[in-house]
């Protein structure tokens, strides 16, 4: 088959391609930095022709034109599986809804027909000599949603790195209905998050838990980046990578010689991930690099896969933790901040891993809008807060004041352990609340 001719036959303008969208359709925009602003802009032009188009995405890094052009949500209803900063701001204006997701289950939603997809709009590399386009930095659920879609439209962008697998990192020209030539703009750069002195203190505590040959998963944020920077400057050897998100700090660790993957039990020698977000340093590193392996999230985030590597060290952020051990990482009260993502997957998977540790990390305090110091370790979660990791699954909690291991502990033992890593100035009030809630006994000790 002449794949070049097939590709050229399917190549149309963005305006022509989005004509396939009908009122009431379910449209999926793709994921992370691989969301196409070109196709979004073309669909936004059709606002007055359409009603009730249900748009889904995963962490779209920009506010879509379809949303900005339709503040009454008459034409387009926008939903995100895991909020970006842009989605968070739209949610605050009632212009975006969160779709709940335990990340490793994502592909099954399409395979089982729970999430219909009339039109998939994705961003890809140009076809290679064999007629395959690459999904770039977002494997995740992309192939599954394209398999489920009635129509697949792909923006071709020459700036997209060709990310090697793994599995399901490509689509054949024959699997795509329309191609649109994009503007070839570079992928969106993830801005660096400032690292505080408290972040560095927490990172030092975490670094003590990492031994030669450990396998790493890092979440997003300043503190995991601080861990990565410290690892790059350490003398640790033969670290492995099995992570949800690949970020710039993994490049630093690899180039410093800390990552070889040679002691991994699964995917030996490979840096396994399901999506990547960062800067051009990361995107250039990924391009045609056989040390990196892109997989669907149903593989990378399945606890039964995660645990096959020994000594999994999984490092994730949280907004607050209560004295019962419940973790809220995705909402502040009822305000959606991000999403469940893969945090639950990795905390559970790390416990099943021989020698593994799942670390929920947070600064002990924050300053509220009135300038008052508040504890992130609370007697109970803020009303309306969403539990990301239930107390029965939570493993380790880390603040700048130390680390609490919660497995096997009763409610009073958990309260004691967590109060001992809360801010010293706020511990007495936490003890009073714990006592009132009948989770404190007189023999409890304070450090």
UniProtKB/TrEMBL annotation:
Species, as recorded: Desulfosporosinus youngiae DSM 17734
InterPro entries noted in UniProt: AcetylCoA_hyd_C, AcetylCoA_hyd_C_sf, ActCoA_hydro, ActCoA_hydro_N, Butryl-CoA_acetate_CoA_Tfrase, NagB/RpiA_transferase-like
An individual GO BP term: acetyl-CoA metabolic process
GO molecular function term, any single one: hydrolase activity
Major enzyme class: transferase
Protein's recorded name: Probable butyrate:acetyl-CoA coenzyme A-transferase
Active-site positions on this chain: 244
Compartment(s) where it occurs, according to its Swiss-Prot or TrEMBL record: Cytoplasm
Stated family: Belongs to the acetyl-CoA hydrolase/transferase family.
Record has Transferase as a keyword: yes
Record-listed CoA binding positions: 219-223, 319, 342
Keywords from the named record: Cytoplasm, Fatty acid metabolism, Hydrolase, Lipid metabolism, Transferase
């Amino acid at each position: 088959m002449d794949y070049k001719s097939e590709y050229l036959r399917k190549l149309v303008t963005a305006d022509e391609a989005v004509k396939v969208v009908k009122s009431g359709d379910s449209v999926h925009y793709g994921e992370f930095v691989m969301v196409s602003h070109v196709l979004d802009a073309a669909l936004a032009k059709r606002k007055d022709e359409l009603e009730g188009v249900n748009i889904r995405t995963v962490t779209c890094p920009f506010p879509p034109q379809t949303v900005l052009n339709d503040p009454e949500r008459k034409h387009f209803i926008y939903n995100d599986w895991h909020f970006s900063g842009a989605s968070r701001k739209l949610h605050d204006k009632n212009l975006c809804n969160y779709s709940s997701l335990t990340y490793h289950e994502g592909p099954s939603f399409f395979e089982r027909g729970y999430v219909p997809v009339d039109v998939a709009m994705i961003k890809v590399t140009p076809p290679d000599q064999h007629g395959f386009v690459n999904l770039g930095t977002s494997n995740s659920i992309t192939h599954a949603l394209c398999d489920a879609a009635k129509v697949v439209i792909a923006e071709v962008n020459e700036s997209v790195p060709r990310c090697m697998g793994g599995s399901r990192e490509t689509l054949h020209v024959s699997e795509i209905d329309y191609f649109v030539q994009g503007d070839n703009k570079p992928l969106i750069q993830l801005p660096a998050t400032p690292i505080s002195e408290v972040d560095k203190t927490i990172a030092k505590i975490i670094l003590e838990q990492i031994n030669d040959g450990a396998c790493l998963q890092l979440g997003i944020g300043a503190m995991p980046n601080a861990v990565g920077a410290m690892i790059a400057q350490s003398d640790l050897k033969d670290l492995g990578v099995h992570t949800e998100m690949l970020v710039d700090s993994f490049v630093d660790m690899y180039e410093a010689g800390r990552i070889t993957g040679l002691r991994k039990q699964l995917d030996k020698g490979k840096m396994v991930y399901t999506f990547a977000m960062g800067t051009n340093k990361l995107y250039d590193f990924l391009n045609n690099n056989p040390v990196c392996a892109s997989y669907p999230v149903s593989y990378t985030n399945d606890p039964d896969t995660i645990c096959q590597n020994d000594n999994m060290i999984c490092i994730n952020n949280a907004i607050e933790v209560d004295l019962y051990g419940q973790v809220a990482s995705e909402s502040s009260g009822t305000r959606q901040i991000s999403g469940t993502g893969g945090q639950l997957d990795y905390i559970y998977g790390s416990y099943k891993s021989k020698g593994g540790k799942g670390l929920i990390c947070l600064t002990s305090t924050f300053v509220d809008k009135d300038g008052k110091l508040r504890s992130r370790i609370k007697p109970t979660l803020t009303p309306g807060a969403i539990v990301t990791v239930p107390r029965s699954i939570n493993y380790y909690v880390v603040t700048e004041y130390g680390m609490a291991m919660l497995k096997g502990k009763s409610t009073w033992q958990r309260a004691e352990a967590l109060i001992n890593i809360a801010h010293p100035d706020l511990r007495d009030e936490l003890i009073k609340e714990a006592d009132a809630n009948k989770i404190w006994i007189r023999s409890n000790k304070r450090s």
